[in-house]
Specification:
alpha/beta, 18 helices, elongated, binds adenosine-5'-triphosphate
């Protein structure tokens, strides 16, 4: 039995980790992969990290039903800085399994500097996966150097590495951006449900208070109807309902400005001069500039949906189309042709925008 220890912070586990583990199993470099989240990585002491229990749960979610993939809480239970050497000593010494260490190229290149790194290289085989950003030649050189200096056996996994890192995922989630494409679906769902890594969430309550105090009764009711319509359209077309609601609540936040105030902001925010004297079109553009600082709304897609809700543009995202249409078809709107647009919006969103 060949067991590969796959250590890391997994903060959070992502598709890059899974691709490497899958490839190591498929190529026969390992029969089992043991995911080992660190309690505290020696390289990340003092860094903000999701608690161990949650990282462990996310790895379980990601690997569930994947044959050959297992998770251990061995290092988490130590409640101390985790050293791979110690873990290998403790786990690898017993039984007659053949142990190795699975890692990406960035870790491989620094392996000599790890705690008792040279001993690791002497005693344990390495299963190595390339990683975008770590030059292939440098990796080949290190393989050769380790082999001649320490007799290290290295198996280089054949696969298509993914350009994904936990750092990028944390950055995106912190900024309120989407990271779904980089995450295994159950992990993405969990992070979203528990709003993890989102230190700065949109201040929805304050936004609603400001809408109530600054918009007219009529406008306020319109905004809430647009939010309902946008959620319905999102359900129909598979968009993110929460984002749609947020964008809808934001879309007319600055609709209450009078002409002078609107023009002043157009100048101050250096918006296109064609928005001068045109608050009907300016309010979306103004909102997209002010919302990040005012309410912590930083999601690019939400800001674009607000910005283009009156003008539209080429190549609108699904969310942009939803807000554009929800504004146009909310139940109290009346104008010639609206019935057709309304029914089309739930069947063919592009055609509805065109109409
Ligand atoms: P961070 O961005 O927080 O440093 P990370 O994405 O590098 O995190 P870790 O949990 O630190 O992930 O990495 C655990 C192991 O997985 C390391 O050996 C690392 O080289 C490897 N690894 C991480 N991402 C990839 C990837 N996209 N492809 C191949 N290996 C990867």
């Amino acid at each position: 039995m060949k067991i590969a220890l796959f250590g890391g912070s997994f903060d959070p586990i992502h598709k890059g980790h899974l691709a490497l583990a899958e490839a190591a199993l498929a190529g026969g470099a390992a029969d089992r992969i043991l995911f080992m989240p660190t309690f505290i990585s020696p390289f990340k002491i003092g860094a903000d990290c999701l608690d161990g229990e949650t990282r462990l749960r996310l790895i379980r979610l990601a690997t569930e039903g994947r044959e050959g993939m297992e998770v251990s809480d061995f290092e988490l239970r130590q409640q101390d800085v985790s050293y791979t050497f110690d873990t290998l000593e403790a786990l690898g010494a017993s039984g007659d399994a053949e142990w190795s260490l699975l890692m990406g190229a960035d870790s491989f290149l620094s392996l000599e500097k790890w705690y008792r790194g040279e001993e690791i290289l002497r005693r344990w085989a390495i299963v190595l996966g390339d990683r975008p950003g770590s030059p292939a030649e440098a990796v080949s050189e290190a393989m050769e150097r380790y082999r001649s200096a320490y007799g290290t056996r290295v198996t280089r996994v054949e696969y298509e590495p993914l350009d994904v890192s936990s750092t990028e995922i944390r950055r995106r989630l912190k900024a309120g951006e989407d990271a779904e494409a980089l995450l295994p679906p159950p992990v993405a769902a969990y992070l979203k449900e528990h709003a993890l890594y989102r230190t700065e969430q949109a201040d929805l309550e304050r936004l609603k208070q400001d809408l109530r105090s600054e918009l007219s009764e009529k406008r306020l009711r319109h905004v809430f109807r647009v939010a309902e319509e946008a959620k319905k359209l999102s359900r129909r077309h598979g968009a993110d309902e929460q984002k749609a609601e947020l964008a809808a609540l934001c879309h007319d936040r600055y609709r209450c400005l009078d002409g002078a105030a609107s023009d002043k902001l157009v100048r101050e925010l250096a918006l296109d001069a064609r928005y001068l004297g045109n608050r009907n079109l300016a309010h979306g553009k103004i909102a997209a500039c002010l919302l990040p600082a005012a309410y912590g709304v930083r999601d690019e897609d939400v800001l674009n949906a607000v910005s283009y809700h009156t003008t539209g543009r080429e190549k609108m995202s699904l969310l942009e189309k939803i807000i554009y249409l929800a504004d146009a078809i909310e139940p109290e709107r009346v104008y010639p042709g609206i019935r057709r647009i309304r029914s089309t919006a739930y069947k063919d969103i592009d055609k509805a925008c065109y109409l």
